[in-house]
Write a structure and sequence with these properties.
mainly alpha, Cytochrome Bc1 Complex, Chain D, domain 2, 5 helices
Amino acid sequence: MKQLKALILAAATLVMAQAYAATDVQAEKIRERIAPAGEVCVGAECGGLAVVAGEPRTGEEVYNTACTACHGVGILGAPKNGDTAAWDDRLAKGMDATLKNALSGINAMPPMGNCATCSDDEILNAIKYMSGR
């Protein structure tokens, strides 16, 4: 009788060990399936653009790097660089309202003119440059 109990206990232990092993294998498969597909790294340490503190870029620098594609030729009604009449219409509401529109986006223009590295001051400098103010 003791041998039978020992045999049953050994069999139960073996079954439990196999159940835990299967659970560990299943858990590892689940971890593999839900693991991140990649990583996102932003900034100079990843080879991207570094935002340098200091003096803001000039309006001309911002225009040449971020604004010229649309404002150079007037794509989708963007006021052209130096077109004072078109800029007068935009600035009729004031420089603050024009800056707010540039920062948040207006019509076909995306927020910040799609210049992710521009500060508010740099956007303002670009508006002043393009409008001749």
